[in-house]
TrEMBL record, chain A:
<feature type="domain" description="ABC transmembrane type-1">
    <location>
        <begin position="88"/>
        <end position="288"/>
    </location>
</feature>
<dbReference type="Pfam" id="PF12911">
    <property type="entry name" value="OppC_N"/>
</dbReference>
<keyword id="KW-0472">Membrane</keyword>
<keyword id="KW-1003">Cell membrane</keyword>
<dbReference type="Pfam" id="PF00528">
    <property type="entry name" value="BPD_transp_1"/>
</dbReference>
<dbReference type="InterPro" id="IPR025966">
    <property type="entry name" value="OppC_N"/>
</dbReference>
<feature type="transmembrane region" description="Helical">
    <location>
        <begin position="90"/>
        <end position="116"/>
    </location>
</feature>
Automatic annotation (TrEMBL), chain B:
<protein>
    <submittedName>
        <fullName>Peptide/nickel transport system ATP-binding protein</fullName>
    </submittedName>
</protein>
<dbReference type="InterPro" id="IPR003439">
    <property type="entry name" value="ABC_transporter-like_ATP-bd"/>
</dbReference>
<dbReference type="GO" id="GO:0005524">
    <property type="term" value="F:ATP binding"/>
</dbReference>
<dbReference type="Pfam" id="PF08352">
    <property type="entry name" value="oligo_HPY"/>
</dbReference>
<dbReference type="InterPro" id="IPR050319">
    <property type="entry name" value="ABC_transp_ATP-bind"/>
</dbReference>
<feature type="domain" description="ABC transporter">
    <location>
        <begin position="2"/>
        <end position="252"/>
    </location>
</feature>
<keyword id="KW-0547">Nucleotide-binding</keyword>
Automatic annotation (TrEMBL), chain C:
<dbReference type="Pfam" id="PF19300">
    <property type="entry name" value="BPD_transp_1_N"/>
</dbReference>
<comment type="similarity">
    <text>Belongs to the binding-protein-dependent transport system permease family.</text>
</comment>
<feature type="transmembrane region" description="Helical">
    <location>
        <begin position="12"/>
        <end position="30"/>
    </location>
</feature>
<dbReference type="InterPro" id="IPR045621">
    <property type="entry name" value="BPD_transp_1_N"/>
</dbReference>
<feature type="domain" description="ABC transmembrane type-1">
    <location>
        <begin position="94"/>
        <end position="311"/>
    </location>
</feature>
<dbReference type="Pfam" id="PF00528">
    <property type="entry name" value="BPD_transp_1"/>
</dbReference>
<dbReference type="GO" id="GO:0055085">
    <property type="term" value="P:transmembrane transport"/>
</dbReference>
């Protein structure tokens, strides 16, 4: 089993694509750091007791900072490394959750639309048209605005993350639906699907057991690319000040806070989270590109 | 004129360097049509690509020489090589549907090509283009030249492609499967055209094909390839009728004959390993299981007055969308335990008939019968309808008919589970393995995935899957047209054996008349959705009644040359 | 052909109606319009009277019909926040956003298409790898970070360009334009680049992928076998066929340009619709949000109709149907 894995085409091309290897390493480091943040971070940026104003605005170590704070501190005295680990944790959580919801929603609708065709397909595609006319960031802002109007302020703070996830997920599902639908149109006429239909298998079984595994390639690519989009979208919303509040900082929030120090010389407060965010998203996109090449044998 | 000497082409790759062509030599004279024949993977197209200098990277010529006249084609620089292309060597591709730029008119493409190689005014280029189109058999060329490719039919497009290849008056044209995508009637016209051009213009042709019939009909000389090496070469008559090399002999023996029905095909040795193995013990288990079904008698299948209409896409608000009649009042009766051959050109409605019988397409009128009882039409046929098990289907393309993400064992066990034939998981597995044995594959195939098998092996697996439903009726839609001729012979033998042993009722659909003659007891000829002729097979082949049937039979390249047959008739001239 | 356009027109009308419905539901159900318009001191009777005057007690369908016809007449209602008519607020902001969007789109096309073609034709060169890596970074860095970098570099450090607002406009009968003065351009260029970079990378990667696909097609191989010169092969045969899918996507991208102008306008304090929308989201100014939605969808639908017509002009398969 293992030997087959190591001999597979994917692993072969992976080991010969240095950029993919570097990207994978970066993703593993950041995701690993985010998952284990509570155990490896020296302080908890949400816990006011774990940092002190006395340590505020210390530069990174190589600029003569305090050896306790590798990448320096912000104006509140929070350790930048810890802030980033927790920030990445939140960003990745929101990214993964919204991507997962968008995948289930989009793939489900796309599969069914492509399989049944006809009126159901027309309805799903018209909804997708409307969604396309309202770009991702607009949808997200809109949902955010609606939630402000509908939810009482006391609940709003607690539900911010949920609202954000739903907003991002709703703006991404169309990609999945369109791709799944287009792939199903191709697969549906292939003989193995026809064989299953002739046998009288249940539509749900034909879709999930026969078609879905065969269209996983393009879907996996979109999942990767949309994970990157979701993380960017969250950062952008937080930057605009309508994503997450400052007391539970994601990478985007950290960048917004850092903006205030852009001109005053404390560059690290802005640039450390910016670079981490960019590195994470670039790496995910490189992996997405790599997957795209793998699944498109004609481009090899 | 063209001299290829000791050509070797290599492709460096992941598992070491692959030698696609090894030490191939051939010559083509002015006006000669030289056939290059071989099964898939023999390297036919690679030779063509090497001559015109368009080898797909990373392939390269590692040894040998290619001379056109006095020019050494291999030492030309990129620019010189590019100027030679079109000017002195041209090429015709297999699929006329995709060979023309869809956004440019025929006129633009022709004039552009002429002016690329000659300093000539647009007016002169246009009149040359028109006369070329006329020469290739396009009537009313001065008007049709303004059209876009999509406005032409497949055969017409191939003529345009040939006109484009001709328009700079090249010395050599490489034709890579030029008629494979065409129906026999159109194929015969295009081959006539090629023969005519070789005669009148003295153009040399390298005709690459897998079809022995095409070779027999057109070529003076032929080179037989296998695994990148030349097996045999010489005058067509001699190679086809008195092959010397054992491979050529067995290849010729495997070609289905149009002139007489044989009991079995002679099966050449293949590299796949012999799959006509003696039946093992577990195959007996499979056989016993197949026979243990309730009804062993053959079941008849018939359709009465079936009409199928498809509605095209709507493209005007005021006109109703066009209705395409795929089947028009078609009736057919397949006697229990016999094979019905269904023939017709592409678009004649053959596959639609299969889909009506299997319940994928809803007819607008007509009834179906399975052994005297009514067989429900598509929408009325429930998922649990017993006919779903009794009627099974074998598809054309063995690469897409097996789900590539499932193991062979799971694919084979699916009918057993679905129809409730065997509820024990382990027993399902044993039966699947036994059935593999019955169709001539080893039982350890069960743990592997479809992509690990060749086309012929996959088709055997597909047959095994259909047998595991314990069917009484098999519908085979072009089951061997995607296979090489030697593999085709094996699969057809297998189907014959199974049919005889289990008295299966088979609907055998094919565009290849020779194959149908070998397989069927009765025959139905379909044209544009209508039955043209129907009756016992041997009577049909000996004395076709309808005009269309006669034409079809006369156009089919007839190659009579099996070993031991003295007949020297090579080409049945039309 | 006419049917094709007509069908698209129907689809567009459906999209507009759906968006209008969305905007209406927003207006009607997110928060109570009456309590938004009135203060705490307004009596219940007055509130009820206002409710009656606004027609909020009418059946749902009637209200939606009135909402839609009002929009068609250009009557967009009043902002909760500024109490101004929304149509005036939007109208004064439209030129800024449109000019920003067009300039960004132009940058994206003028740089993106040639770069895509180049990288598709030279798949393995050093320049190609560099461009590809740069664009990958381009799609991965948030727009606002690009804006910040540009401001820092050209505005603060070098002091070449203004970084704030939209000075130097000329009024052309109600349409204020930055295009006519050098000063206007100096304000426009940084936001336009910021907005254009992301679209540029998308355009480039798309053109590259499509072009590589086309270069592999049979008709290109056949044209090569006929000795058609490289330049014609690339720009006449391949590029035309590449543009068919590209045009569709560029139409869809226009939505992205407008949407991301929200971010750009926020970074550069560019007085366009995006900034207005952002303020209205912050203050839950529902009428402005709703109208912005309708206006954006309208632009999107309009651009895509134009794209469909372009499509017809390029692709004879849609234009000429009859077989010969």
């Amino acid at each position: 089993m293992m030997s087959r894995f190591f001999q597979s085409d994917g692993v072969y091309y992976f080991l010969r694509t240095p950029s993919a290897i570097v990207a994978a390493i970066i993703v593993v480091i950041i995701v690993g750091g985010a998952i284990f943040a509570p155990w490896i971070a020296q302080s908890n940026p949400y816990d006011l007791a774990s940092f002190s104003l006395m340590d505020g605005l210390l530069p990174p170590v190589w600029q003569g900072g305090d050896p306790r704070f590798l990448l320096g501190t912000d104006n509140q005295g929070r350790d930048m490394v810890s802030s980033i680990l927790y920030g990445a944790r939140l960003s990745l959580f929101i990214g993964f959750m919204s991507m997962a919801i968008a995948t289930v929603l989009g793939v489900g609708l796309g599969l069914a639309a492509g399989y049944y065709g006809g009126r159901f397909d027309a309805i799903v595609m018209r909804i997708a048209d409307v969604q396309l006319a309202l770009p991702a960031i607009l949808t997200a802002l809109l949902i955010d605005g609606i939630s402000r109007g509908l939810l009482p302020p006391s609940v709003q703070q607690d539900l911010r993350v949920v609202v954000l996830i739903i907003a991002i997920a709703l703006s991404l599902w169309v990609n999945f639906a369109r791709t799944a639908r287009a792939s199903v149109f191709v697969e549906r006429n292939k003989d193995y699907v026809q064989a299953a239909m002739i046998m009288g298998q249940r539509p749900s079984r034909v879709m999930l057991r026969h078609i879905l595994p065969n269209i996983m390639g393009p879907l996996l690519v979109i999942m990767t690319v949309d994970l990157a989009s979701a993380i960017l979208l969250e950062a952008t919303l937080s930057f605009l000040g309508i994503g997450l509040p400052a007391d539970s900082p994601s990478l985007g929030t950290l960048i917004r806070i850092g903006m205030q120090f852009q001109l005053s010389g404390e560059w690290w407060i802005l640039w450390v989270p910016t670079i981490v965010l960019a590195a994470l998203v670039v790496s995910i996109n490189i992996l997405g590109d790599f997957l795209r090449d793998i699944f498109n044998p004609r481009l090899r | 004129m063209l001299t290829v000497e000791n050509l070797t082409v290599q492709f460096p790759g992941r598992f070491g360097t692959f030698t696609a062509i090894e030490d191939v030599s051939l010559t083509i004279e002015r006006g000669e049509i030289h056939g290059l024949v071989g099964e898939s993977g023999a390297g036919k197209s690679t030779i063509g690509a090497a001559i015109i200098g368009l080898l797909q990277p990373p392939g390269f010529v590692s040894n040998g020489s290619i001379h056109l006249g006095d020019t050494d084609l291999l030492i030309l620089g990129d620019d010189e090589a590019h100027q030679t292309r079109g000017k002195r060597i041209s090429m015709i591709f297999q699929d006329p549907q995709t060979s023309l730029n869809p956004l440019m008119t025929i006129e633009d493409q022709l004039i552009e090509t002429i002016q690329t190689h000659e300093d000539i005014s647009t007016e002169d280029a246009r009149s040359r283009a028109i006369s070329l189109l006329e020469e290739t058999g396009i009537e009313n060329a001065s008007q049709r030249i303004k059209a876009y490719p999509h406005q032409f039919s497949g055969g017409m497009r191939q003529r345009v492609v040939i006109a484009l290849a001709l328009c700079t008056n090249p010395e050599l044209i490489i034709a890579d499967e030029p008629t494979t995508a065409l129906d026999v009637a159109v194929q015969s016209q295009v081959l006539d055209l090629i023969r005519g051009l070789a005669n009148t213009r003295g153009i040399g042709f390298l005709l690459i094909t897998h079809d022995i019939g095409v070779i027999a009909q057109t070529c003076q000389n032929v080179t037989v390839l296998r695994g990148g090496q030349v097996m045999e070469h010489g005058p067509t008559q001699q190679v086809l009728n008195a092959p010397e090399h054992p491979y050529t002999q067995s290849l010729m023996a495997a070609v289905p004959r149009l002139d007489v029905k044989l009991d079995r095909f002679l099966v050449p040795d293949t590299e796949e390993g012999v799959e006509t193995a003696p039946i093992g013990r577990s195959a007996e288990d499979a056989e016993r299981w197949l026979r243990s079904g309730d009804e062993m008698l053959g079941q008849g299948l018939s359709m009465e007055g079936v009409t199928v209409k498809f509605t095209g896409a709507r493209d005007s608000l005021f006109r109703k969308p066009e209705v395409f009649v795929a089947l028009d009042d078609v009736s057919m009766t397949i006697r229990p335990g016999t094979v019905m051959g269904l023939v017709g050109e592409s678009g004649s409605g053959k596959s639609t008939m299969a889909k009506v019988l299997t319940g994928l397409v809803q007819p607008t009128a007509g009834t179906l019968k399975l052994n005297d009882s009514t067989l429900p039409l598509a929408r009325q046929r429930g998922r649990k309808d017993p006919s779903r098990r009794v009627i099974q289907m074998v598809f054309q393309d063995p690469y897409s008919s097996l789900n590539s993400r499932h193991r062979i064992g799971d694919i084979l066990a699916e009918p057993l589970w679905l129809y409730g034939l065997e509820n024990d998981r382990a027993k399902r597995r044993d039966l699947a393995a036994a059935m593999l044995d019955l169709v001539g594959l080893s039982a350890d195939a069960i743990n592997r995935y479809p992509h690990q098998f060749s086309g012929g092996q996959r088709q055997r697996i597909a047959v095994a899957r259909s047998l595991l439903a314990r069917p009484r009726v098999l519908i085979c839609d072009e089951p061997t047209s995607a296979l090489d001729v030697s593999i085709q012979a094996q699969v057809l033998n297998l189907l014959k054996d199974l049919q005889a042993r289990f008295s299966l009722t088979i609907l055998f659909i094919s565009h290849n008349l020779a194959v149908v003659r070998q397989m069927s007891d009765d025959i139905t000829v379909l044209k544009s959705g209508k039955v043209v002729e129907a009756g016992p097979s041997e009577a049909f082949f000996n004395d076709p009644q309808a005009d269309y049937s006669q034409e079809l039979l006369s156009l089919t390249p007839n190659y009579v040359g099996q070993k031991g047959v003295a007949s020297q008739t090579l080409v049945t001239e039309v | 052909m006419a049917y094709f356009i007509l069908k698209r027109l129907f689809q567009s009308i459906f999209v507009m109606l759906a968006v209008a419905f969305l905007a209406f539901s927003l207006f009607r159900f997110v928060g109570d319009p009456v309590s938004q318009m009135t203060g705490v001191e307004t009596s219940v009777q007055d509130q009820e009277q206002l409710r009656e005057e606004l027609g909020l007690n009418d059946p749902f369908v009637v209200q939606f019909y009135r909402f839609t016809t009002d929009i068609l007449k250009g009557d967009f209602g009043y902002s909760y926040r500024t109490r101004q008519p929304v149509n005036e607020m939007i109208a004064s902001r439209i030129p800024a956003t449109i000019e920003l969007g067009i300039t960004a789109l132009m940058i994206s096309l003028i740089v993106g298409i040639p770069a895509g073609v180049y990288t598709a034709l030279r798949t393995r060169g050093f320049a190609t790898q560099t461009i590809l890596l740069t664009t990958l970074v381009g799609v991965s860095i948030p727009t606002f970070v690009i804006g910040i970098v540009l401001i820092f570099l050209f505005g603060v450090t070098l002091g070449w360009m203004p970084t704030f607002g939209r000075g130097g406009t000329v009024d052309l009968g109600g349409w204020t334009t930055s295009f006519l003065t050098l000063e206007g351009w100096s304000y426009l260029i940084l936001p336009a680049i910021t907005l254009g970079v992301y679209q540029l990378t998308l355009t480039m990667r798309l053109v590259r992928a499509e072009m590589m696909e086309v270069m592999r097609s049979d008709y290109i191989r056949f044209a090569t076998a006929r000795g058609i010169p490289q330049r014609k092969l690339h720009y006449r045969h391949a590029l035309g066929n590449t543009m068919i899918p590209v045009i569709t996507i560029i139409g869809l991208q226009f939505g992205g340009v407008i949407a991301f102008s929200i971010v750009t306008e926020s970074v550069f304090q560019w007085p366009g619709m995006g900034l207005l929308f952002l303020e209205s989201v912050r203050f839950v100014d529902i009428p402005v949000m709703g109208v912005y939605l309708v206006v954006i969808a309208f632009f999107f639908v309009l651009v895509n109709l134009v794209v469909d017509i372009l499509y017809l002009m390029i692709d004879p398969r849609l234009r000429v149907k009859e077989a010969i």
